[in-house]
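Check out one such.
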Amino acid sequence: MSWKGFTKTVTRTPQTIKQRFNLGDNTSDAVYIDAERRFQELEKETKILHEESKKYFNAITGMLNHQIEFSKAIAEIYKPISGRVSDPDALEAEGNPEGIRACEEYESIVRELLTTLQPELEMIESRVINPAVELLDIIKVIRKCATKRQHKQLDYDRHRTTLKKLQDKKEKTLKDEKAMYKAENDVEMATQEFNYFNDLLKDELPRLFALEREFIRPLFQSFYYMQLNVFYTLHERMQGINIGYFNLTLDIEDAFESKRGDIKEQAESLGIVRFKATGGKRPVSKFGNGPAGRLAIEGPPVPGSKPGAPSSRRQTHDFSEAPPPPYSSSLSPGTSIGRANSTGSAWSAAAKGKKPAPPPPKPKPARLGKPSAVETATALYDYEAQAEGDLSFTTGDVIEILKRGATENEWWTGKVAGKEGQFPGNYVKLN
């Protein structure tokens, strides 16, 4: 905006506020107000026409391109995923060669269809989209004229208000007479300019609306016929597809079920499809934080304690006592690893005399049952609960067996110190 335009805007601001809130004397022309309303609708609908026709053009082109990419993705899935480039056997068709050929045929048909429809799509752009753009350019010019008329109305009302104030003065000085003379000239000039733009728009906007109908009529007809040609070409070409991989004699649902077979049941039988990220057993490493990685550094049971009674679960040992059981022989001679006990209160030396704790068995059963006979077992290693429902114990604890599996490589159920839970059977020895 130029400095002159900025100055005019500041000068018109008071009158703009009065007009917006309907204060004072404001000029109102009912004929122009109605024409302005219809012009705003024309401007809005022309923008929608341009945007939607362009979206339709992009949608047809995008649909065919997506079909090509779809066939490429299916072909990649059909291709074998095993084999090496250096192995000549890897070039053998181990995947679905019939499906791959069908994808290639389908892609070729869609590419040919895209080439066939290209002239129709170009006609949509030249006969619908481009004329809408030209109409928008005309509307922009008319909008500038309407804005100019609005500015002239503000000047007209502003000068009339100034002149009325001077005329209403009872006693006029020489300065007031000069100001009134200037205001009369300003009002006359503003009246001429406002009437020019106001009459011009009132006279020519209705003619524009009539021409609009004549403009839209061939535009809509062209769009309809071009759309009809696009759909007819799509239908005719797709109807003539003869790919042996597809059985077009069956119903859509029957063909789908026939191709799928029992794949869904086979996929659901895989263990990985039922994988849960939480709530399961953590893998136990040899030297990790699991049960097999913890050292039994607790001392002997307290004299006089009853079987099954809680013993000193976590004791702090110094290195003057007998060393704890050793790790496996995979470590180099003379190497020792100190690990925290179950409470993390002391470091233990290298263990000697016992084998390392074996890994936990396979996932435990869901239901827990109590056996009729009461059995007990002595803990061979420390075990700390890894999930809800597990039973923690330390080496030497006497555990009441509530249920045990057929082998020690399963999860057993027991009770110690009044707590009941599950634990790995290979961590205890039956009494």
Q: What stands out?
A: Residues 223 and 359 are 73 Å apart (CA to CA). The two ends are 98 Å apart (CA to CA).
